[in-house]
Recover the amino acids of this structure.
């Protein structure tokens, strides 16, 4: 992450009348979530008589979130506020990749492979990582997990890749 | 007094050397598993439940009590050390506890959490014995309208404890409420916003979302370039393991208030125990001479919610045993275990099986005692964990969290969802939205909806029921009062100051 330090604000591409970009964008995003929820719950039944249908409460809260999002965005227009903080790409990318890999690999490849690989992929997320050290700690952690979860705690978990066992 | 005789009987049942040993083992194992980051209280109790199956009923329940307290304390430990709350009640502990850890005061935070919990447990045990039966009547006075108002009040607590903008905090609560709607509708069984994904049919798990927005998001944020300084700070200045005299003086009233508040709220079936820790924190923040200290490492902010949480867990046995309503997921697991051993919660259980009931209440107290015996010496070891360099710590936490989430339902989709919520949480942090209100909204959402529906059904669609019933009106009035206090312009100025400095 030798790119921009995260605390330095990025230059805003937003029009000048937006005085608090952080709130403005945040509010808009909340409105988007609310609209998505409204769309997702649109096929559900509404009120019938006095009783709520399945869709009543979700739509009620979605409308509420829409209004609140609009209010937050309005604050962003009317009041001076902080700029949007810069995102770094390396941490989020590799941590998500590690999690995703674990989720995909745990069933077919088993705990040993997926835990060690997830450890190494996550370690890519930091420029501070020292590789030899990471490999040793990753291996020890994998061994510990492989003993702890299936044996000590008795959780049903595949240990080794499926094709090796068969 | 007959009730004290009952309690004495309970202790006589529980105090055999073999039972004490069971409890000690339970508390030790519970703590060791619960302290793994990413393995929350619920997951810990669920994992360890099977080891009690082979024991005789009383021994099994006592061991379970040990596991429960150990797991809960383990959850508080991860909240304080790595900012990953294992269940709803320790979300509040993370707020100031983790700040204390960042200031090198993890030791006192952990110690005061144990001491506060122990004290609250002692008081609540006596309270159950003295007031158990009459207080059940209070719980019965709560109808759906009162519960809905109580939930509203609980959610307002989350607004008050947030550091930044009130508007954004409310938006986060509603976002959480929306998330809680995902899954099957309680009454009609219709699938809501689940997009035909089978794993979503039961809704989003609390552990999944909490691990995402707290655990993964915190890790990702710590990997940001500017955050390095902050982390090094945590590792370098670790001062004192035990609380100082000043810490004890500061936290004693907080522990007392937290205990009283938690004992009262715990009696209410449903959300009471969850609301207790949030309410206790809010109370401390409102009573403090300098509220700006909260969220920045105030020891009262750890002491009070931890005591309230524990007192509520203890008194929540009253509705559990008399009405059969478990206050949270962990207690629901406990009911499952009780049923396996032949105790069916319900109105008659107190008369029919006094051995088990009072033995269990006594064993909860013993569980508390074991907790403090085990954990005060261990504080030093937990604190030392903070010295592990972050470059090794964070991949380990990622792996533990992934395994922990996977193990709850054996569902890879849950792991992916937690990852997605990690990115959502990172975005929220970048836009100064706080995750704690979101989680509370998510926990209280289903209860809130259920009671709202019932109340309106009973009142035949008349919304005035919430203000015409006195108890409900009082709760709503308190909620409105708190909200007004939170948005008052004078307070606003102070809050903004806090938010700028702490998130710099």
């Amino acid at each position: 992450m030798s790119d921009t330090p995260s605390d330095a604000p990025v230059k805003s591409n937003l029009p000048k009348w937006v005085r608090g970009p952080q709130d403005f964008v945040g509010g808009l995003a909340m409105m988007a979530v609310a609209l998505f929820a409204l769309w997702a719950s649109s096929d559900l039944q509404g009120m019938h008589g006095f009783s709520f249908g399945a869709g009543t409460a979700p739509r009620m809260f979605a409308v509420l979130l829409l209004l609140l999002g609009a209010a937050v965005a309005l604050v962003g227009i009317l009041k001076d506020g902080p700029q949007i903080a810069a995102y770094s790409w390396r941490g989020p990318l590799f941590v998500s990749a590690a999690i995703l890999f674990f989720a995909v690999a745990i069933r077919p490849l088993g705990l040993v492979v997926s835990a060690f690989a997830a450890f190494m992929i996550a370690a890519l997320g930091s420029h501070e990582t020292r590789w030899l050290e990471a490999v040793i700690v990753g291996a020890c952690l994998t061994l510990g997990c492989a003993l702890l979860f299936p044996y000590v705690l008795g959780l049903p978990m595949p240990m080794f890749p499926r094709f090796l066992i068969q | 007094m007959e009730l004290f005789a009952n309690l004495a009987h309970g202790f006589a049942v529980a105090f055999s050397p073999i039972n004490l040993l069971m409890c000690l083992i339970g508390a030790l194992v519970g703590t060791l598993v619960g302290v793994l980051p990413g393995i929350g209280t619920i997951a810990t109790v669920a994992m360890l439940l099977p080891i009690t199956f082979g024991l005789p009923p009383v021994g099994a329940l006592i061991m379970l009590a040990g596991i429960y307290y150990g797991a809960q304390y383990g959850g508080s430990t991860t909240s304080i050390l790595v900012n990953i709350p294992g269940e709803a009640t320790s979300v509040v502990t993370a707020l100031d506890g983790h700040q204390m850890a960042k200031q090198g005061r993890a030791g006192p935070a952990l110690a005061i959490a144990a001491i506060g919990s122990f004290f609250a447990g002692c008081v609540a045990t006596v309270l159950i014995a003295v007031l158990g039966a009459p207080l059940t009547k209070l719980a019965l006075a709560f109808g759906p309208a009162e519960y809905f108002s109580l939930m509203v009040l609980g959610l307002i607590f989350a607004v008050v404890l947030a550091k930044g903008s009130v508007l954004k905090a409310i938006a986060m609560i509603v976002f959480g409420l929306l998330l809680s709607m995902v899954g099957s509708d309680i009454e009609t069984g219709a699938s809501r916003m689940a997009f035909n994904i089978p794993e979503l049919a039961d809704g989003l798990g609390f552990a999944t979302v909490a691990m995402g927005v707290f655990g993964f998001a915190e890790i990702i944020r710590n990997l940001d370039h500017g955050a390095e300084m902050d982390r090094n700070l945590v590792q370098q200045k670790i001062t004192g393991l035990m609380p100082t005299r000043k810490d004890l003086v500061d936290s004693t009233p907080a522990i007392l208030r937290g205990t009283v508040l938690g004992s009262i709220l715990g009696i209410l079936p449903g959300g009471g125990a969850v609301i207790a820790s949030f309410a206790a924190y809010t109370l401390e923040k409102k009573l403090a001479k300098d509220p700006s200290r909260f969220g920045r490492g105030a020891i009262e902010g750890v002491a009070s919610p931890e005591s309230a949480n524990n007192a509520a867990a203890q008194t929540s046995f009253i509705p559990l045993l008399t009405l059969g309503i478990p206050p949270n997921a962990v207690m629901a697991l406990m009911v499952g275990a009780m049923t396996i051993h032949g105790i069916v919660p319900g109105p008659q259980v107190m008369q029919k099986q006094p051995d088990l009931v009072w033995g269990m209440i006594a064993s909860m107290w013993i569980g508390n005692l074991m907790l403090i015996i085990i954990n005060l010496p261990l504080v030093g070891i937990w604190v030392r964990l903070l010295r592990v360099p972050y470059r090794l710590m964070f991949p380990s936490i990622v792996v533990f969290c992934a395994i922990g989430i996977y193990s709850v339902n054996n569902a890879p989709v849950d792991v992916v969802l937690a990852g997605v919520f990690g990115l959502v949480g990172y975005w929220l942090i970048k836009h100064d939205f706080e995750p704690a209100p979101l989680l509370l909204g998510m926990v209280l959402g289903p209860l809130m909806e259920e009671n709202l529906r019932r109340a309106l059904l009973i009142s035949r669609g008349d919304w005035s029921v919430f203000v015409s019933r006195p108890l409900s009106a009082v709760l709503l009035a308190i909620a409105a009062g708190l909200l007004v206090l939170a948005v008052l312009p004078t307070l606003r100025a102070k809050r903004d100051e806090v938010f700028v400095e702490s998130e710099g």
